[in-house]
Q: What sequence folds into this?
């Protein structure tokens, strides 16, 4: 599908004491198709560990990845923040998928799942703090303890 945009370009030329203004119509064609953003559900890689804030402690190996998924619905104010303390874990990726991709463009259709992917980069202990927020107010906070071994 092509969207055609017309704009008026004005250029002002300063020459001595006079100003000349030229007007020109510019047509810009933009190719737009349906967005695939948020369409695919998260698929963990082999060996990834699913950690969630209801289970408190996990032991993983250096180089292993973990993932944590939280429900979000921005248009009504449901958000989540995830923060890892320590130096054992590194956030390597995030993923978002809509609950209903076909209706994601509609009002209120932005509900989905945000997935945070961490990799264990060195031996030690870290904590992941998960905050569930509603319209800026903290509703729930959970802590996940991660021990990284060789």
A:
């Amino acid at each position: 599908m092509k969207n055609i945009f017309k704009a008026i370009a004005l250029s002002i030329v300063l020459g001595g004491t006079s100003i000349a203004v030229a007007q020109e119509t510019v047509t810009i064609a933009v190719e737009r198709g349906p967005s695939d953003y948020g369409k695919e559900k998260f698929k963990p890689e082999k060996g990834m560990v699913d950690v969630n804030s209801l289970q408190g402690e996990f032991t993983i190996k250096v180089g292993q990845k973990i993932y944590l998924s939280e429900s979000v619905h921005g248009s009504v104010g449901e958000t989540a923040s995830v923060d890892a303390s320590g130096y054992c874990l590194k956030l390597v990726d995030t993923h978002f998928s809509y609950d209903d991709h076909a209706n994601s463009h509609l009002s209120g259709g932005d509900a989905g799942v945000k997935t945070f992917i961490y990799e264990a980069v060195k031996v030690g202990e870290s904590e992941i703090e998960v905050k569930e927020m509603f319209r800026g107010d903290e509703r729930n906070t959970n802590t996940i303890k991660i021990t990284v071994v060789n």
